[in-house]
Amino acid sequence: MADAASRLTTLAEDLLGVPLPVAIRAWDGSEAGPPGAPVLVVRSRQALRRLLWKPGELGLARAWVAGELDVEGDLYEALDRLSGLVWERGDGTGGTGRAARAVRAARAVRDPRLREAAGALIRLTGPFPPPRPPAEEVRRRTGPLHTKRRDKEAISHHYDVGNDFYELVLGPSMVYSCAYWSPGGTLEEAQTAKLDLICRKLALRPGDRLLDVGCGWGSLAIHAAREYGARVVGVTLSAEQAAYARKRVAGEGLTDRVEIRVQDYRDVGDGPYDAIASVGMAEHVGQVRYREYADDLYSLLRPGGRLLNHQISRRPEKNEAAYRVDDFIDRYVFPDGELAPVGRTTTALEEAGFEVRDVEAIREHYALTLRQWVANLEARLPEAERLTSPGRARVWRLYMAASAVSFERNRIGVNQILAVRTPDGGASGLPLRPRAWTERPDR
């Protein structure tokens, strides 16, 4: 079909009611759209069939993961321009943007003009159903959320994809959470600064017992034991992470001070601990379990002990009851993962008995971290595809780049919440000017 790009652009703009913010290059080699804009490459009509059957982010994600869609030019700019059409948030509906609503309205015959445009798009793509979802997609799950078995399966989907792949993306630090940047610093320096900041906020001293909830590949546990003399228990649900972390601990000569367990945090029963760190783990807990999570950590901490909860947050919806998890994230990245507004997190911690003493918002730091991870992936993309699959590498590139844009545009944030199990006497143990931890004192 000659000049498919022009027809696609016209049909898309008729459906959306706004100019298309990117150019389109179609499977026939034709191109249309604003000059100088990033180019959305539609390699196959199957991409359009996916979008017609699943309008919004899930159809887009399936086409992207299958290699039927690509972007030429600045990926971040393309995602930013498309975000209002595909990932629109904060409208009180919990919906997924103008594109999905337009196609659904056309299907519902609410607008003859939209129905005609949708019909023309169907004629362009053919009447055939879309192909099966890519192999990287998690099937829709049923049953109760956040049981121990279901959480273990979800964690395995995300983390047990090969330690070599994570080394490629994360770099030598093997830290999979927001770094703490200084101007001109490297990723490794920023990740070390983040680990040290956590230890200082927790006021770790030699011999202190630290529980590292969701310990990943052991970076914080090793840093706390080596630099602060702490005795650390790290727990993870990922067998691959645990094996890797234990090997690192042995290599550092810290087996007498660091224990790595494959264990659900709900099964930890050897408290009390002097300090608890939960970094990038609470996003997996879910709203139905969050108060239980806060209660469990409170019970594991000695009076006067500190909790450092490092967690991604989302902006509140006007109608919180309508909030739902993004389809792309749920099916391809973090099954059953949920984000909460920071106010809800602090409330749950306070209801459990904690005294929240400090909240530090560091979302710009996560945008910088994600951009570096994307650069690491793109620099060694053929190797990443060999270590996992081409589809999995595409999942990660889209997920990390889109997340970077979301942090930059204040659609999501990340916060370090310092809370204390304050004793009955009311002595929190914090200095009068607690932000002194931003500068590490000589020890």
TrEMBL record:
Ranges of residues in domain Polyketide synthase-like methyltransferase: 165-405
Stored InterPro entries: CFA/CMAS (IPR050723), CMAS (IPR003333), MeTfrase_dom (IPR020803), SAM-dependent_MTases_sf (IPR029063)
GO BP annotations listed: lipid biosynthetic process; methylation
MF terms in GO: methyltransferase activity
Pfam families xrefs: CMAS
Gene3D superfamilies linked to this entry: Vaccinia Virus protein VP39 (3.40.50.150)
Keywords assigned: Lipid metabolism, Methyltransferase, S-adenosyl-L-methionine, Transferase
Alphabetical list of SMART domains matching this protein: PKS_MT
CDD domains in the cross-refs: AdoMet_MTases
Location of the region described as Disordered in the Swiss-Prot/TrEMBL record: 125-150
Recorded family membership: Belongs to the CFA/CMAS family.
Designated name of the protein: Cyclopropane-fatty-acyl-phospholipid synthase
